[in-house]
Amino acid sequence: MKSFKKLFTSKPKPHIPESSFKIGGMGSLKVLDVIPSPEDDSHKLKKAFQGFGTDEDGIIEILGHRDANQRKKIRETYHQLYNETLVDALKSELSGDFGKAVILWTYDPSERDARLANEALKSKKKGIKHLEIIVEMSCASSPQHIVAVRQAYCTLFDHSVEEDIVASVPPPLRKILVGLVTSYRYDKEVVDTDVANLEADRLHEAIKTKDLAHDDVVFILSTRNFYQLRTTFECYKKKHGNPIDKDIEKSGKGDLESLLRMVMLCIDSPEKHFAELLKFDLVGFEFIVQVRTQV
């Protein structure tokens, strides 16, 4: 548990480069100015696996201070040197929450999200908390990332994430999630205030009439770029007096309302969303690992 806490107890922030990502007692997860070669890192990892007990601190020191591209090279090199995948080696040496966390961290970001999404969709306990990963990867990451996740999902599980959403998530949540994962948003800072004002009114009408899964709502939330949506939310507050998430909360306490509030928060203030998750401290390490988008 000591190493687990060391790895995952501080407050990571979404949308920041991996070179300044913060993880646990290590402070800032900064990539070193001079990076050892993948061969050197692979040899050190192999050594950490040998002997009496596993050198968990040694594993963290290497994998915790390498960005995604560097970890990829380490995975490839380790496999070439020892004819064993690094993930398999970690699985054989580590256990419990710490082991699962390190393995998730070691995966390529898109593969990590794909695996987490599949685990959530296959879970028998399929509540809103289990669907957070789908919302986060759709609304708190780049369009390129969600495309990479969908590709990884198909490669790993021989079917698409949207197929599994349709098969396992009830309507109207299904409609919202499929719209989110299949969209490809424009990622430049382009805003049309006239459209923002118009769509703020459309969203207000949907909330007022409790028609939260209306096609207009799905279209707006799944196709508009994040800058446009944030402007729409600002227009909503100016025109209708309350933040949009608060009006959704007032309209009901069901799963649909909770899901939409999560969508709004991930789009408007992803750092607040992840900060709320971190209030759970170590109750479920994936809350921390899932700050994935740039990691």
From TrEMBL:
Record flagged with keyword Nucleotide-binding: no
Gene Ontology cellular component annotations, sorted alphabetically: cytoplasm; plasma membrane
GO term, biological process aspect, one: response to heat
Xref: SMART domains: ANX (SM00335)
InterPro entries with a match to the protein in the record: Annexin (IPR001464), Annexin_repeat (IPR018502), Annexin_sf (IPR037104), AnnexinD_plant (IPR009118)
Binding site for Ca(2+): 49, 51, 53, 93
Pfam families in UniProt: Annexin
Keywords annotated in UniProt: Annexin, Calcium, Calcium/phospholipid-binding, Metal-binding, Repeat
A GO term, aspect molecular function: phosphatidylserine binding
Domain of life of the native organism: Eukaryota
Protein name, as recorded: Annexin
